[in-house]
Design brief:
heterodimer; A: flat
Chain lengths: ~90, ~325
């Protein structure tokens, strides 16, 4: 179990560093999400399931979704949007 | 002695003009003053070119790092200072941490009578099997009340910054970012219709069993909020608006906060620690036990669920 803990902690450090070094904002959000997920597993191993549930719901779920929505609002996720526009040219009723 | 003046005489007086002007019948300046629309400011092409050239020249001179010695010097100095500053802060923090008592040590200041009291008397005092929830919601109920208020204020701030009028939402429907998404995505809708009820049920279970098993109001509420976000992402705001709109949000949120405040105040006034409380703690291990823990859990849960959904809706389209 100690080795498993060590591996998880190593992942945590790698995730935390690579969030700030990744150039793509979408990638950094995904890495941040996985950081929260690993953190929630570590909370379970530290015998505090209360925190694990909250971390999984808030850290990995709601926060990342809010990040995604914000990135979309400020048009930071451009490539995806263009592809979708190509696939489905939205009709304007004007 | 006052008398009525003739109309022609009255028309010459200041009062006549003034009241006409006041009533908006006649603009005093029309006819008396030459009125022309303001000339539009236009810059000639030659001056624009000159200006741009000047600007580029200035920029090139200022940021020319290969010739500007001052700039070179400051660049090097900036790097040196930032490295020294980082090292200084890291050393300071490491030194501070090295003075902290070791984790789990007997001499640690957290190993005092408070935690002992919580562990030994917690079950008897609060009636909650889950000591963490019992501690948070009855020994430290006022702390948690403050936290719930923080959530309330956070939503208020987001509303102040991002909320737009109802009409604007309707007008912007065409330019809404939902147009760029796959509308009525079948995979997402099927998965959401399967998962959302389970997520809701699990959230409700966690809230209601907060005093018996791990979890509590906050985690359960966050889960329900996440389930609602999933539902909105799959089916759109119109379908969600049928059971959760701004009025429901207002009612639930304000009611939860008010009831929470009343319960906590009543508990602290009548039967905090050691005093006989009118709310029975019940038999430990049953659903209807734990005194004030269960109702407070429910109120915190509904508050948090509303907050999570409100955040998403406000970020998404500026309204609930």
């Amino acid at each position: 179990m100690a080795i498993f803990n060590m591996i998880l902690l190593g992942f945590l450090v790698i995730c935390a560093i690579s969030v700030s070094f990744s150039k793509n904002l979408l990638n950094s959000i995904l890495i941040f999400m996985s950081y929260s997920l690993i953190m929630s597993i570590i909370w379970i191993l530290l015998e505090s399931p209360d925190l694990a549930i909250t971390e999984a719901a808030v850290g990995a779920g709601v926060t990342s979704i809010l990040f995604f929505v914000t990135l979309k609002k400020i048009h930071a996720i451009k490539q995806e949007q263009e592809e979708e526009e190509k696939d489905e040219p939205h009709q304007k009723t004007e | 002695m006052s008398r009525i003046r003739k109309q022609s005489e009255y028309e010459k007086t200041f009062a006549y003009h003034f009241f006409r002007w006041l009533g908006g019948e006649k603009d005093a300046f029309v006819g008396n003053m030459e009125m022309r629309p303001q000339k539009e400011y236009r810059e000639e092409d030659a001056t624009i070119e000159e200006r741009m050239k000047d600007r580029q020249q200035a920029i090139a001179e200022v940021y020319d790092s290969s010739h500007n010695r001052e700039l070179k010097f400051f660049g090097a100095l900036y790097k040196c200072f930032s490295i020294v500053f980082c090292i200084a802060i890291v050393t300071l923090l490491v030194i501070t941490v090295s003075y902290l008592p070791s984790v789990g040590g007997v001499q640690k200041p957290t190993n005092n009578e408070v935690s002992e009291k919580y562990i030994t008397d917690g079950l008897e005092d609060t009636g909650a099997v889950n000591i963490v929830t019992g501690m948070i919601l009855s020994y430290r109920a006022f702390d948690t009340f403050g936290e719930t208020n923080v959530l309330f204020i956070a939503t208020c701030c987001v509303m102040i910054m991002l909320m737009v009028d109802e009409e604007k939402i309707r007008d912007n429907r065409e330019s809404n970012d939902r147009n760029f998404e796959p509308k009525n995505d079948v995979i997402l809708q099927v998965i959401a219709s399967l998962l959302a009820p389970i997520v809701f049920l699990f959230g409700i279970y966690i809230i209601l069993n907060g005093h018996l098993s791990p979890g509590g109001g906050f985690s359960g509420g966050a889960m329900i909020g996440a389930g609602m976000i999933l539902y909105v992402a799959a089916f759109g705001f119109e379908k969600t608006g049928r059971f959760f709109n701004e009025n429901v949000y207002k009612c639930v949120k304000v009611t939860a906060l008010l009831c929470y405040g009343c319960i906590v105040t009543y508990y602290f006034l009548t039967g905090a620690n050691g005093l006989p409380c009118l709310i029975p703690t019940g038999e430990a291990g049953k659903i209807l036990s734990g005194g004030i823990t269960l109702p407070i859990n429910i109120f915190v849960g509904s508050e948090v669920a509303c907050t999570m959904y409100a955040f998403y809706a406000l970020f998404r389209r500026g309204g609930l």
